[in-house]
Amino acid sequence: MGWLNALISNILAPEKFINSLNSLVSNFKDKQKEKIQLFALERVEQISGLLASAVSVIIIGMVAFMAYFFGIITLTIYLASFWGALGAFAALTMFHVVLLLIFIIFRESLLEFPIFKAISDKFVDEIMKED
């Protein structure tokens, strides 16, 4: 019966009802704004995590490429003492051509699928964390 008395008093006192309704609407708007801000912050966190991963992969890739490049030059100079300069460069060029052909032939299983799987796993992990 308490709720009935509250309803009757709200109907009989419309300004009180309007104030209650305004308060309810204001609370609802604030809650929705908080949800939008939380969603935006979560997306910023995801994007910054992906960018940080991308930058670290690029830096590691650059350092690895430099080490590889100087290693190849060193190997070429070493092999030049046995096969001559032209033979050493020819041997290493053929090695890289074979390596390139392997990457071209098997690019889907060697490159595309692992990259797709890594990115999709990262998103799935983020979605599961949200639930």
Helix amount, in percent? Answer: over 70%
Please state the overall shape, judged from the principal axes of the Cα atoms: rod-shaped
| Approximate strand percentage | under 5%
Return the string of H and E elements: HHH
Characterize the main sheet: none
Q: How many DSSP E strands?
A: 0
Mean pLDDT: 82
Counting H and I runs of at least 4 residues, what is the number of helices? 3
Report the uncertain regions: none
**How much is the radius of gyration in Å?**
33 Å
Span of the ends, CA to CA:
40 Å
Broad structural category:
mainly alpha
Any overview of this molecule?
The mean pLDDT is 82. α2 runs antiparallel to α3. It is rod-shaped and about 105 Å long. Helices cover 97% and strands 0% of the residues. 0% of the residues are buried. With 131 residues, it is mainly α.
